[in-house]
Amino acid sequence: MAENRVEIAAGALVLVLALGFAAYAGKGMGLADGGDSYELRASFRSIQGVGLGSDVKLAGVKVGTLSELTLNPETYMADAVITVDRSVQLPSDSAILISSEGLLGGNYIELQPGGMPDYLAPGDEIEDTQGAVSLISLLMKFVSSKADSGSTGN
Length: 154
What we know:
Layout: H1 2-28, E1 37-44, E2 55-58, E3 61-71, E4 78-85, E5 95-100, E6 107-112, E7 128-130, H2 135-152
Parallel strand pairs: 2-6, 5-7
Antiparallel strand pairs: 1-4, 2-3, 3-4, 5-6
Organism: Stagnihabitans tardus
Pfam families: MlaD
Domain Mce/MlaD: 37-114
């Protein structure tokens, strides 16, 4: 009888720890505290390097996450929905872009506030977007331009 109580207590402890871990992981991904945030939309030509749960930063500080990502079949652009902390009010002419943390670092979504006196409302779309820049394509352009300038100089 005492063995059953010990087993039940151990099982309950494992269950509580699992639920606590799930709640912590959900909060870290921006799934909790829905009342403290709002959604904004944006369309990107390329959103390479980021995915669901990626950080949204303003001045290097995490203020939200990427919560939804779909391909628009009409425009062939990546339609993104970001969840932003309600304490962050963005001017209506703000920009959103894919940035890199460095040469070997990962990509994240960066918000650049504009200067208009009116603010984006929940559900609004950020019009000024800049997609991910491919390092490989930049290197190829650089090599190609160097090859072209070397062949015309002879």
